[in-house]
Amino acid sequence: MTLSLLPDECFNNILFFLDYKTLYKCLLVNRHYCKFAIPLIWRDPFIPPIPNKCSLINTLISCLNDEEISSLKSCLTYFEINNNNTPPLFEYGRFIRKIDHDYCVNHINSWIKFKSSNKNIKNNNQDYYNNNNKDSKVRKLTSIIYNMIMRKGSNLQEFVLFINSRNYYIDLPKFSIFTIYKPGITNLTSLSIEVYFDLVDDDKRYQNTIEFLSNVSKFCNCIINCEFWISNLSNALTKPFLDIIKLQPLERILIDTYTDNYIEKENVEKVIQALEFRSKTLKQLLFRSLDFQLIDLSFISKLENLENLEFVQCRGFVLQSLFYNKKFDFKQLKLWHDEDYYYDLLEDYGKKLSNIMVVMLNSFCSKSLLKLSLNIITPDSINAVKLCCPYINSLNIKIFSDQSLDLIIPIICHFNLLKTLKIEIYDGVVNIVNLVEILADHLLFVEYLILDFNIDLSSFQYFIINCKANLKKWIIYIDNNRKDYLLHINNYQKIHNSLKILGINKFYNRDFDWTNDELEVIGYLKDQGVDIISSDELDINYLS
């Protein structure tokens, strides 16, 4: 009997919830199951480590050859490293497709910490806990594990590099490890780089990392996704980034950086100007935390195949000729202004910015736009959405003021093709009672509703009684009086008979711990075809 043809992502979710105590035995069911499941399980093994769990590193060590074991023993003198164990059933390293360097190092740190808790080690090697001594062991084991993975023929496709400390960062192994074995990094498709301090070229603490970044574009030819999360875009990073943009067939780029001085601003401009090299390939362009006051956005008009454009927590937008001379055909757009400036937005600057946003919407929005996220919410901006993108079916807004809600919400609710609506608010500023009542009185066409704020019970009851929309998926906050909220939802379902999924946002990651009375109401809802799950089991980020 063949397995059904589900996407790998679905099987990953299924395997994630299996009992790992019995999973090893389950893998012996048959050859076909092994051939199918092992590559999925080992595609991305370096997830956040669990304290005192050493099985991952133990398994990887069991895959080492004699030379690697010998090198490891010379470094970890006080650990029992035995290469006479039964060889592993599978060549696990060969199946690894993604490496998160930071998680890998954390696993190794946890393994060494667990091993060093042995009393004999403490008694015989008092200076073992010296940081320099420990770091050298972590670096050595990291290099050996990388070497084994590459030697086994791993077809590495995703690489994540996270550098958040100048003093405690464990450098990458020598770059030759990634190229001496085939395919190595030749087929790398995704590269994510996060750096939270100023990298310097000649600092030996991360010289291999600089070498990796400087050479990756020369040895790879198919990187289509690249993310740059950089607090300080120094000269040491700018050239490698420029080479990646110019030489790789990138389809998606995310740039998140600050510009606190002239050099950083100059480097950001160089990176942005280089995006023109991706005029034929780039489909998604995402900016985070940038100040666009002195940046010419005309380069966007040269990106012929761009479908998704995002500005998140960005600022400094000014009127540019581009907005008047070019009409774009994006499918997705996110204009999410830096929220730290929002108290200013309620004054004269807010009116000026609203006018700028309207001009940008007139340029960036068209009949092709299906998905929009916006946090400059005024009657003018919403009317611009109504006029420019009549076929929009997904909208995410964040409201920072009570002003004109009686005008704004009805306009949104009458987008007759709008099926997904997510509403966020700025805490303590918006009158939730007023917002919920207006929404209840006008909501008609929406099928998926996400209300990302807490609603008092009386307002919730008003919404249930007056809402005419036939919701299929509904995500809400419930904390106290859960039974009463569930009873109101049960009444809604009796009338509409439309709800399929009720997603409940849990406060502070607490478990639900339903009471018997609440479980009884949940039973009523399930009998009417409603699945009740926590919102973290839903993909609610599709609007983010």
Describe the protein.
By secondary structure, this protein is α/β, with parallel strands linked by helices. Helices cover 42% and strands 15% of the residues. It folds into four domains: 1-41, no CATH class; 45-153, no CATH class; 155-306, no CATH class; 433-544, no CATH class. It has helices at 8-16, 20-26, 31-41, 55-62, 66-75, 92-95, 101-116, 119-124, 131-151, 177-180, 207-219, 235-247, 262-274, 321-325, 342-345, 348-364, 379-388, 405-413, 432-442, 457-466, 482-496, 516-527, and strands spanning 98-100, 158-163, 190-195, 225-232, 252-258, 284-288, 308-314, 332-337, 371-374, 394-399, 420-425, 448-451, 473-477, 501-505, 531-534. The radius of gyration is 27 Å and the shape is globular. The two termini are 40 Å apart. The model is unreliable at 540-544 (pLDDT under 50).
* Dominant shape: globular
Structural class: alpha/beta
CA radius of gyration: 27 Å
**Which bin fits the share of residues in helices?**
40-55%
Task: Identify low-pLDDT runs.
Answer: 540-544
End-to-end CA span: 40 Å
**What's the overall average pLDDT, rounded?**
86
Number of strands: 15
The structural domain count equals 4
In percent, how much strand structure appears in the residues? Answer: 15-25%
Give the number of helices.
22
User: If strands are numbered along the chain, what order do they take across the biggest sheet?
Assistant: 1-2-3-4-5-6-7-8-9-10-11-12-13-14-15
Biggest beta sheet attributes: 15 strands, parallel
